[in-house]
Write a structure and sequence with these properties.
7-stranded mixed sheet
């Protein structure tokens, strides 16, 4: 996977000015409030030092605009309403021209193409009420990385105005679903930028691939394959394309059937271990797999199935689903398998737990009375669970890197069967959006921020 080659340079100096501030409080978007009015922000096209640079500047502005709008926290002001024509970002804007069209924030930028073809992208973020610069940065990058720079700009704006890290410069891996000539289901891995750009396939249609999960460094994924007729976990190196079947030799050494199922492997926060559910003599149990030593350690030993493990962001505890209490519920335990605690007690079948990157919440799906739900519960089980979405079918939640947005699989009935798509929703239960995958899709996994 090509990495962003953008070079972070010194912050652009704030432009000095004298004048009466027309507001007292700096701009801030409260991401915890839920269904708030989005912040109006003006985003004129980044100016260019040439026609080619201006065209690329317009492209960058379009990506930044779409990123911010997709969060539900920002309302880009229609460019047709702009009064001032930005020609030089080093000159102070005419703030009254932006306030009159109700733009609380103004993002201006420039693109320069150097002799070696590299791009220099600079931008300034202004508070039009206080008439103050909030942010000024510059990037230098190879020309093919312009879209990554645009996402970086959107992340910087998001962080400056919300106080929390952005999530736009990321990728999403998922399962592309289709049907063969005989109507048989086809499932192959695909990936794309979080905004749907640059889609491509990672596996072909000769075998099924399911349940991908990202490593902390974004360079590897695990997924479940039926290439050999069994549910087998594979490690996929996104840089080289190399794939490796895991666990069979370690299972043999541990006295387990090497042809047994291994499901839903997830990386530890340091990327050195995997938590995985492996089929044994009496059912599925949670194991730890050390990627360096290739040793397998069993954590649970219960007659009921213990499946779907997910690490806490500090790596100290693991959440999993288990039918040990009757119906499937959620449990947490220490990373060595001790101190097992049940954290859900509601009616229904609780599955697919995923620990938030923030550490405070665990996402889950639940089936109760013929309805599927996507919800969150506090990691210690206290308080009341919050349901964010209910539908015909809901599965496989995945957190954004900042823990403020969830992706999930949503299925809706059609005359020719259930149609599966990937949707997103924010932590407050608002801003429900369908991802542009170009067809049926499921099992999303969200990468960390790309550096």
């Amino acid at each position: 996977m090509s990495r962003l080659i953008a070079v972070f340079t010194a912050a652009l100096a704030s432009l000095a000015f004298a004048g009466l501030a027309v507001a007292q409080e700096p701009l801030r978007v409260d991401v915890t409030r839920g269904n708030l009015d989005p912040l109006p922000i003006a985003l004129p096209d980044f100016v260019g030092s040439s026609d080619e640079a201006a065209a690329r500047g317009a492209d960058i502005t379009r990506v930044v605009t779409n990123d911010l709008a997709s969060s539900g926290l920002f309302a880009p002001v229609d460019q047709a309403a702009y009064i001032e024509d930005i020609e030089n970002i080093d000159l102070r804007p005419r703030f009254s021209d932006w306030r009159v069209i109700d733009a609380s924030a103004l993002l201006v930028g420039s693109v320069t193409i150097q002799e070696d073809g590299r791009l220099v992208v600079a931008f300034r973020l202004w508070d039009t009420r206080l008439e103050e610069q909030l942010l000024g940065l510059q990037y230098r990058t190879a020309p093919e990385n312009w879209r990554r720079v645009a996402h970086r700009v959107a992340d910087e704006v998001y962080e400056r105005l919300t106080g929390e890290e952005g999530y736009f410069n990321t990728r999403i891996v998922y399962v592309s679903e289709g049907r063969g000539s005989d109507g048989e289901p086809l499932r192959q891995l695909a990936w794309m930028d979080q905004d749907g750009a640059n889609p491509s396939f990672l596996t072909d249609r000769s075998y099924m691939a399911l349940l991908p999960n990202y490593s902390p460094n974004s360079q590897e994924i695990t997924y479940v394959s039926f290439l050999d007729g069994q549910a087998t976990t594979y490690l996929y190196d996104l840089e080289t394309g190399r794939q490796e079947a895991l666990f069979s030799s370690a299972m043999r050494q541990a006295g387990l059937n090497p042809d047994g199922q291994s499901l839903s492997a997830r990386f530890s926060p340091d990327g050195e271990r995997l938590a995985v559910s492996i089929q044994g003599r009496s059912g599925h149990d949670v194991h730890l797999f050390d990627l360096r030593t290739r040793n397998l350690t069993q954590l649970t030993q219960h007659p009921a199935d213990d499946v779907e493990p997910s690490f806490a962001p500090d790596g100290e505890r693991i959440v999993f689903s288990s039918s040990r209490g009757g119906g499937s519920q959620l449990y947490t335990m220490n990373v060595n398998g001790t101190d097992v605690q049940r954290i859900t007690f509601g009616d229904g079948i609780y599955t697919t737990p995923v620990w938030s990157p923030r550490g405070d919440l665990i996402a889950f799906t639940k089936q109760s009375g013929g309805t599927f739900s996507l919800g969150v519960v506090r990691a210690d089980g206290s308080g009341i669970e919050r349901i964010l979405f209910e539908g015909y079918f809901v599965d496989t939640p995945a957190w954004s890197p900042n823990g403020r947005v969830l992706l999930f699989t949503r299925g809706e009935p059609r005359s020719d069967g259930t149609r599966y798509e990937i949707w997103s929703i924010d932590l407050a239960g608002f801003n429900l959006r369908r991802l542009a995958t170009g067809g049926m899709a499921s099992d999303p996994a969200w990468s960390p921020l790309i550096e």
